[in-house]
Amino acid sequence: MQLKPEQLEAQLAKGLKPIYTLHGDEPLLVQEAADAIRAAARAAGYAERKVFTVSGAHFDWSAVQGASQAMSLFAERQLIEIRIPSGKPGKDGSEALQRYCEKLADDVLTLVQLPRLDFQQAKSAWFSALDGAGIAVRFDPIERRALPAWLAQRLARQGQRVGTGEEGQRTLAFFADRIEGNLLAAHQEMQKMALLYPAGELRFEQVESAVLDVARYDIAKLVEAVWGGQSARALRMLSALEAEGESAVFVHWTLAEDVRALARTRAALDDGQPLPLALREARVWGAKEKLFERLLPQVTAAQLARWLNSAQVCDGQCKGLNDPRWPSGAWPSLRHLVLMLLGRPQGAARGLVLQA
Fold it and tell me: Would the pTM of this model clear 0.90, i.e. be above it?
């Protein structure tokens, strides 16, 4: 049975299921959920714990099956944890997990931890067996727009809060910008706030002086910011990716692929295709699909042609083929391209107005 993360606590209070499967790419949230399950297991008498980490194709699944069927030497009940860091148990593992779910022992509670699963993994027979035998919880990344509320909730747990109105929103927005994409570090920063300041209201100046810039960004978030028209956020992400040593060529390729997808979709729309079909044929889906739906009515084929030409020039810049009309260097050129896509054609480094 699938549960949302916020439903787990209430479910544990009602009684334990034989298997809990946690999957997702938010280590902090997965860790906290696993800790809650372990605490509930200890309270219910599952005093012995065994941990199996599946690494490689030659993992001995019979050891897991044997542990679940063997009587505990030290307690009446035992907790068995199965960790699959790759998210791919393999053929033998798939069969073993299905057999495991068919022969669940009454005195064993099982906790399975997985990374984010793709569509095929989520529909596999082994995951369906885990889901059908107990509880499965998926932990999705917390989007930027949801971070202020998440931070406010976490601060409230430790007896702290920000001010009301615009000042409080400004404080939470600043905090969110500093920790975006790095919830583990966000948790540490909030613990630091609890040590530095007493319970009660936090001023912006206190948060500004205490919270480190520990945000981590990925290219997918960058392109979402670009197509969402979030200029300041997109430029901040681009600078962070450069500082983290990301490949400029890969960043450019991702942006250029989106421009090409937009151009294909615009051409299909101009030929009379309905928008859903045009997006599907351009292989646009998920969060980007919503962004493109809002963006496409605002851009013309001629504008997209200019963007394609700019992306081609930027490709050469990233590979050392300098164009005198563009800022020199891969990352200044990427910044210039991003400004163009955001509708601001001013030169990134030299203040030149270039063709957009």
Answer: no
